[in-house]
Amino acid sequence: MTHTEIEVTAELVRDLLRDQHHDLADLPVRLGARGWDNQLWRLGDDLAVRLPWATESADELLLKEHTWLPTLAPRLPLPVPVPQRLGEPSTRFPRPWIVTTWVPGEPADRAPVTRGAEAADALAAFLTALHQPAPEQAPAGRDRGGSLADYSEGFVKGLASATEMGLIPDPDAVRAVWDDAVAAPDWTGPALWLHGDLHPANVLTTDGTICGVIDFGDLFAGDPAGDLAAAWSLLPDGAADRFYDAYQPAPDAATLRRARGWAVRRALGGIHIGEAGVRGRPGGKATWGPPAHAALRRLIAPAPEQAQVPFPSRRQPR
Predict the structure, then answer these.
(1) Rounded distance, CA 125 to CA 118, Å?
(2) What is the b/e burial string over 158-176, where b = at least 16 CB atoms within 10 angstroms of the residue's CB?
(3) What whole-number distance in Å separates Cα of residue 271 and Cα of residue 286?
(4) 110: which residues sit within 8 A by CB, 6+ positions away?
(5) Which whole-number Å values give the CA distances from 153 to 77, 177, 217, in the listed order?
(6) Which helix (H) or strand (E) holds 199?
(7) Mean pLDDT, each 10-residue run in order, the chain (318 residues)
């Protein structure tokens, strides 16, 4: 992480607005959140300002959202932060920034889903609408997409490290999920639009169900299995099957196997980030640990109706 040398304050945000979008400069400004790549500042009741601060790649991610999300947002059944204005680099702040709509709700890592059926249906409807063929000029993934086998070395090292810290109760079962996913056939369908980063901190909830999706900086085109993995980390026990039943078109067995692989990779990463947060280390987020551990527990649990088969296909394609 490379935090910007410029301190971002409410006064700086107001100054940027006065310089470039003066009609918004008198709205109240208050800090919303400091994310992995960007800072988020509430602007009045309905808008937000997002400024890159913690990674060199944040500029590119914001510009990607500004380019593509206004086109995709109208077809999505859940609220998303739609870019409204673009801020140009200047002497005050030498990086691009954007003004988006504000999406109300609490991040699911802090307010987990409790109404599993409703949330499964909402997530399935959202991804069914998003997962449409993307144009040839659509962006590629950033450390996402492609073959799972490309990530095996890092996964094995991460699993060994977490096991040494006592964070993984059954590493052999975790490795079995991964190996099964790596052995699954690759995606051969068209490259579909993907959110690319559907971890609990990027999904919002209210009253126990999903009410919005944020942070489309990793938007790209590819294999839908990466997004379908989110069911394991976002939904409570027993709700993943309902999600996969509701998602259209019905995923085939190979896609479900790859989804489990992406889910176990994401859970392992969340466990590391959560542990770093508990220990007060840079980049750590303590709230990421509980949903990651819960996802891993669900992923390695044998299906009760076929307990003798480690990772059965839950359904056949229609």
Answers:
(1) 11
(2) bbeebbeeebbeeeebbbe
(3) 9
(4) 287
(5) 38, 15, 25
(6) none
(7) 71 97 97 87 97 87 95 98 97 96 97 98 98 95 83 97 97 98 96 96 98 96 97 97 97 98 98 97 94 98 54 39
